[in-house]
Design brief:
heterodimer; A: 235 residues; mainly alpha; B: alpha+beta; OB fold (Dihydrolipoamide Acetyltransferase, E2P); 5-stranded mixed beta barrel; 4 helices; 6 strands
Chain lengths: 235, 141
């Protein structure tokens, strides 16, 4: 179990780290945006609406990644009763939900000119909406349940059940016929996205990851201060 | 090593997790028919009864099959095994093109004719600048 013997020390480190991550985020975001909006070429079919992809795809990746992380931590929370894990998982959730909503909204904006519809109840989009609902239930479970021990247990179970949805989202486009196109980037096969478009995509992903880290540090900081104010020197 | 209680908890949670996976797998399997967003022309061909509900059919727009007649667009959806004639009145999305993916939503008149009320263009997974596309075309020639 983590020892908060020097809670003040931890808070100090988090504060320093926060400023560093913030500066790095601004730099990477500026590079990413200028690559995505100005320097990268337009697509041969979608022309400029391809630029929505540089926000849409990283957001979707980050929201999936964060949910997986929360779920894995939740196994640790339930099995080892690690209280620090529960603070980390709780602090990760808000930025995950944010990026999930961004992915849904940008996808909708892209779908209108490309597909000809704002929304389609296909497997990929519906399962992504389900992920957003899981995020919402997860975050609400922390707020609604007053008893802290109960909140930890309930939220962890929600996260573990929600983990099943993650591979469904990933493989929905391969398993069923969907309106959403299959993945362009594959580890085993050659990617079907040109390298001049892959670079801005990678930089934007890094920028969004840094932003999530920043929001996480702020939330985690708040949680630690709450503990400090309760006058506990350990969890 | 970890205590007996931790091991028991791990086993318990794993069991719940696995049974949840199995439940969801079975539910999806049972609902497979509704999970797919569209059917292929071949699946339409093998339908036992047509029904009068709205249906979605997807595939490729057959090369040089688009014919515009006043405001009515006729084209053929193919999955390279079977074909389906579609007629549609209205505006189509920008990406609607011959040789590209399409999803038509509408009512089946018979196993080879669909009266569409909505046309959606399906985008594929290829992303590249126009120059690269031109170069690829030249290489093919």
């Amino acid at each position: 179990m983590l020892n908060y013997f020097n809670l003040n020390n931890t808070l100090f480190i988090i504060n320093r780290l926060r400023k560093f991550v913030f500066a790095l985020f601004i730099i990477v975001l500026l590079i990413g945006l200028s690559e995505a909006l100005i320097l990268s070429p337009e697509d041969y079919k979608q022309s400029d609406s391809v630029r929505i992809m540089y926000v849409h795809v990283p957001s979707a990746w980050i929201s999936l990644g964060i949910f997986s992380l929360i779920s894995i931590l939740s196994f640790g929370i339930l099995i080892f009763k690690n209280k620090n894990f529960s603070l980390i998982a709780k602090s990760l959730a808000p930025s995950g939900l944010l990026f999930n909503i961004i992915a849904l909204v940008t996808g909708s904006i892209w779908g209108r000119p490309t597909w000809g519809t704002w929304w389609a109840w296909d497997a990929r989009i519906t399962s992504m909406l389900l992920l957003a609902i899981f995020y919402l239930i997860y975050i609400l479970s922390w707020r609604v349940i007053d008893d802290n021990d109960k909140a930890i247990k309930t939220s962890s179970i929600i996260a573990i059940i929600g983990l099943i949805n993650v591979p469904i989202i990933k493989f929905s486009v391969d398993w069923w016929s969907t309106l959403h196109q299959p993945a362009s980037i594959n580890l085993l096969k050659e990617s079907t996205i040109h390298s001049s478009m892959l670079v801005p995509l990678a930089i934007m992903t890094a920028a969004f990851a840094l932003f999530s880290l920043l929001i996480f540090l702020m939330k985690y900081n708040t949680e630690l201060i709450k503990i400090k104010n309760k006058g506990l020197d350990r969890l | 090593m970890y205590g007996k209680k931790v091991k028991l908890r791990a086993f318990f949670i794993l069991l719940i997790f696995l049974s949840a996976i199995l439940t969801i797998f079975l539910v999806i399997k049972a609902l497979e028919e509704n999970v797919v967003y569209f059917k292929s022309p071949s699946e339409i061909k093998n339908l036992t009864e047509l029904g009068d509900k709205k249906i979605r059919v997807g595939g490729m727009v057959k090369k040089s099959s688009i014919k515009t007649n006043d405001s009515v667009i006729n084209f053929i959806i193919t999955d390279f095994k079977n074909e389906l004639l579609v007629s549609f009145e209205g505006s189509v999305p920008n990406l609607f093109e011959e040789g590209k993916g399409v999803v038509a939503e509408g009512f089946l008149k018979d196993r080879s004719y669909l009266k569409a009320v909505k046309i959606l263009a399906k985008h594929d997974e290829n992303y590249m600048p126009p120059e690269v596309n031109e170069a690829l075309k030249d290489n093919k020639k």
